[in-house]
Design brief:
Elements: H1 7-30, H2 37-50, E1 54-55, E2 67-71, E3 74-76, E4 90-95, E5 97-99, E6 102-103, E7 106-111, H3 117-134, H4 143-156, E8 160-161, E9 167-169, E10 176-180, E11 197-200, E12 203-205, E13 211-213, E14 220-222, E15 228-230, E16 233-236, E17 243-244
Antiparallel strand pairs: 1-5, 2-4, 3-14, 4-7, 5-6, 8-12, 9-10, 9-11, 11-16, 12-15, 13-14, 16-17
Bound molecules: magnesium ion.
Magnesium ion (MG) binds at residues 105, 168, 199, 201, 232.
Length: 251
């Protein structure tokens, strides 16, 4: 069952998503050479708590922090640590805030100081692929229409989309139905209806789309050690254009 949110539920969820987006923006501002990923995590944690919300990721499946911070070849689920960010790193931050019974979940990849042109292009193509995908996130379309558009954009630009992890419904739970893959043929999967809320999250690689999970059971890296980027927003399906919920303004 794919949950359909009422207008009342959406009012709450908008706030949860705005807090989440503001937390992502804060993390992005902190990305610079010399900062540890743990410092970023701590600031994000304290910000979320200051908003009367709870960090959704903390303790989720046993995850030990409030953010996932994934540097360079780490695709997702990097654990904040004493690692010091260096000039040229690309830093993906994924965060969730639970407020009023609903959660936001969003991510972006940030440049640490000056980065290579290739890394810059990877970040830009990843972000744009989200916008290409959500052009198809409309009532009456099917879920795979989104992923098909994401994949087409990414591959046209010479990169690849991760297959092993996908987007998802989001709401009272961080992971709800349906799965939202970033690849595949169009016209498949559940039909989209007004009131569905989805986390659309392209994970894009410079090289192979194959990934592996390290011994800590979280850190997910590209199989070939090349760079990866991530971009995620929560969206609401409407009878027109989708509404992006994870925007940092107006709360
Ligand atoms: Mg997600």
């Amino acid at each position: 069952m794919i949950p359909i949110k009422t207008e009342r539920e959406l009012e709450i969820m908008r706030r949860a998503c705005k807090i989440t987006a503001a937390a992502r923006a804060l993390a992005g501002e902190m990305v610079r050479p010399g900062v540890t990923t743990r410092q970023i995590d701590k600031a994000v944690h304290d910000f979320i708590v200051s908003q009367g919300a709870k960090p959704t990721f903390l303790g989720y499946g046993g995850f030990p922090a409030s953010t996932c911070i994934s540097v360079n070849e780490v695709v997702i689920h990097g654990i904040p640590s004493d690692r010091v960010l260096k000039e040229g790193d690309i830093v993906s931050v994924d965060v969730g805030a639970f407020w009023g019974g609903f959660t936001g979940d969003c991510a972006a990849t940030f440049a640490c100081g000056n980065i290579s042109p290739a890394a810059k292009k990877l970040i830009e193509v990843t972000e744009q692929s989200f916008y290409e995908g959500i052009k198809f996130a409309r009532q009456g379309n099917r879920v795979s229409d989104i992923g098909h558009a994401v994949q087409s954009w990414v591959e046209r630009n010479g990169f690849n989309v991760v297959r092993a992890f996908v987007g998802h419904g989001v709401g009272e739970q961080m992971h709800e139905e349906p799965e939202v893959p970033n690849f595949g043929a169009p016209g498949r999967g559940p039909r989209l209806f007004k009131g569905m809320t989805l986390a659309v999250e392209p994970m894009v690689t410079e090289g192979t789309y194959e990934v592996r999970v390290l011994k800590d059971r979280w850190t997910t890296v590209t199989a070939d050690g090349k760079l990866a980027a991530h971009y995620e927003n929560d969206i609401l399906i409407t009878d027109g254009e989708p509404e992006i919920l994870s925007v940092p303004e107006g709360f």
